[in-house]
Amino acid sequence: MTRNEENERDEKLKVLPDSVKLSWGITKKGRRGPKGELSVPQIVQAAIAIADEEGLTAVSMSRVAQSLGYTTMSLYRYIASKNDLLLLMQDAVCDFPIPEERSGESWRERMKEYVALSVAVFREHPWYADIPFESLPLMPHNLRILDWMMRIMRDFPVNHFEKMSFLLLVSSYSRACGMIERDVALVMKEKGSMDSFHGQNYTAALQELIKPDQYPYLHPLIMSGAYTDEADNPIKDDLDFGLERILDGIEQYIEMKRKLT
After folding, report:
1. Residue 85: closest CA among 116, 51, 61
2. How many Å apart are CA 187 and CA 197, to the nearest integer?
3. Which ranges of 192-230 does DSSP label H, i.e. alpha helix?
4. Residue 169 sits in which domain range?
5. Do 16 and 84 have their domain in common?
6. Which spans are transmembrane here (predicted)?
7. Do 101 and 114 contact (CB within 8 A), yes or no?
8. With 224 labelled, which of 56, 93, 243, 257 sits at a CA distance of 20 to 30 A?
9. Could you tell me if 188 and 102 lie in one domain?
10. 46, 64 Cβ separation under 8 angstroms
11. Into how many domains does the chain fold?
12. pLDDT tens per residue, range 88-115
């Protein structure tokens, strides 16, 4: 790469936030202290360990520095702010192996695998959803996951905008399911029982309070026991059922597009 090409590249990249530059390893070398003292990945992994154990509120630059045996100012030589650290943590936990393609596997099965691995991030790192996304994904690990979804949809007879919409739909459902599983896990950790989460302790009280004249359409649901999961559930797993219906909708749309081409 020539000097002019390097300058052009630097000009294009300078608009990126500091956290994104750090994630791609494109920051200019600054005063980092003695060689081998610390590294950005080391700091990020220490912060993740604290968040996994104690929650996101326990993460601070001083706490992370203390866990590593360094001063707080040592961390600021590598990462400029706590916000940058949080965004780097968010990307780091998305660094999991992308499944290899298997012959004979349908796109539906591949999307289910995408959802399962996405949900696992929320289950294994309960704090993940507490960090808001500040922009569209820009960091390498998140973009690699998006690339995976584009691979799954590569033969779809749709344009790029339709693929992005499918991605948003499936990812949003994954996020919702992940947050539910996270909350269920927290309830089990604190109370050791799912009864309060499903509301089975409140069935009789709800049946007393929900009157047919005030809640004419909810009343039959409450009385049947389905609301508090006390009736036989023919669809078994609610979240899997919802995902199948989303995939049905995508499949119907694809078939419609194929017929038009």
Report:
1. 61
2. 7
3. 195-198, 203-209, 219-224
4. 93-192
5. yes
6. none
7. no
8. 243
9. yes
10. yes
11. 2
12. 999 999 999 999 999 999 999 999 999 9
